[in-house]
Amino acid sequence: MSPPVEEPAAATTLDHRRLLAEIDAEVRERREEGDLPPGFERELDALFNRFAPPSISDDFDAVLERADQHAYIDADAPVASRIPGGTFVKKVLRKLTSFYVQHVARNVTAFASTIVRAVKLLGGRVERLEAAVPGADDRVLDAFARLPRTDLSEWTEAVVQVLGSVRGRVAVLEAGDGALLRAFAGAGLDAYGVEPDVPLADEVADAGLEVRADAAVDHLRRVPGDSLGGIVLVGCVERLPTGALVELAELSASRLAVGGRVVIVSAGPVSAAFGPAAVAADLAPARPFHAATWVHLFEQHGIIDLETRDGARIPGALQTVPGEGDVANAVNANVARLNDVLFAPASYLVTGTRAPTS
């Protein structure tokens, strides 16, 4: 009788979303207990990018330096061997094949060196292109980041009310000084913030709030789909270039769970051209979107029940002329039209809900 055949063990399927959720929960717990200082995770990321293999590193200069080092091929193969007579055999083989190996090595080294040089030249061109595009130049972004942020505190109560019934975590992109996060905490919402200004993010984190130093788009790219109960877009919607804003709308819609809510709080594009905000308008990579533009983008990505609310109008509106009659009525009608254009609402709120998938 043949021995019984053992059934193969069933293959274990790795649920990467569950694994990421468990890692995220562990990091949150460690962060709340004070085991992870605010800058510790960033230091690890920087070290990883610096010393990681070129294939997975994000440090361009380090990758290019590694490529330059590996561009040269050593045609003299080592001959040391632990096998008796192995060293002699290797020396003979190296001697017999040296002409062909050196010929190939010279050609491959010349090709690799040319490619590395071409990448360096391309890198220089990209740097000059970035200097000409506001959204890509770090100096412009840094100057813009140092400007006082638009005061949108008038919307805090409304945002808390909109998100008060959501289930799941709420991401605030960007967290700023943490005022909105504190309001969410007071309302019992499970919220965290993302803030690209590293010193500001550390300051808010030191105050006991969960804030991650990261860019809004980069963070949402790493968030699993259908995992957030709410997303608040504030600050970044006035600073990012047009392409990034379009991607932000797409990412936000896909990261929300069914029934999750998205909220946008933004200064209007007209308000950015008047008063102190004119400096921000000059330095910003792109002007803020109109509320109707966000509605149009979200409608394309399964967001329903979209609503828009206008904030207070820009101060300094033109005054109507006193009196009655055809002339006064005509002048006042034109004044009203000018006020609608020049002194539009200074900010707006857009809300929407992730529709069930069909």
Mean pLDDT: 80
CATH class of the domain at 150-354: Alpha Beta
Q: Specify the number of helices.
A: 14
Q: Structural class given helices, strands, pairing?
A: alpha/beta
Q: What is the chain-wise order of helices and strands?
A: HHHHHHEHEHEHEHHEHHEHE
Search tags:
elongated; 7 strands; 13% strand; 7-stranded mixed sheet; Rossmann fold; 358 residues; alpha/beta
Tell me about this structure.
It is a single chain. This protein is of the alpha/beta class and 358 residues long. It has a domain at 150-354: Rossmann fold (3-Layer(aba) Sandwich). The chain has helices spanning 16-32, 40-51, 60-70, 86-132, 138-145, 156-163, 179-186, 198-206, 216-222, 236-239, 242-255, 277-283, 291-299, 326-342, and strands at residues 170-173, 191-195, 211-213, 228-234, 256-267, 303-310, 347-354. Helix 8 links the parallel strand 2 and strand 3. Helix 3 (60-70) runs antiparallel to helix 4 (86-132) and helix 9 runs parallel beside helix 11. The longest helix has 47 residues, at 86-132. The relative contact order is 0.09. Mean pLDDT is 80; it is low at 4-11.
Q: In summary, what is this structure?
A:
By secondary structure, the chain is an alpha/beta fold. Helices cover 50% and strands 13% of the residues. The chain has a domain at 150-354: Vaccinia Virus protein VP39 (Rossmann fold, 3-Layer(aba) Sandwich), CATH 3.40.50.
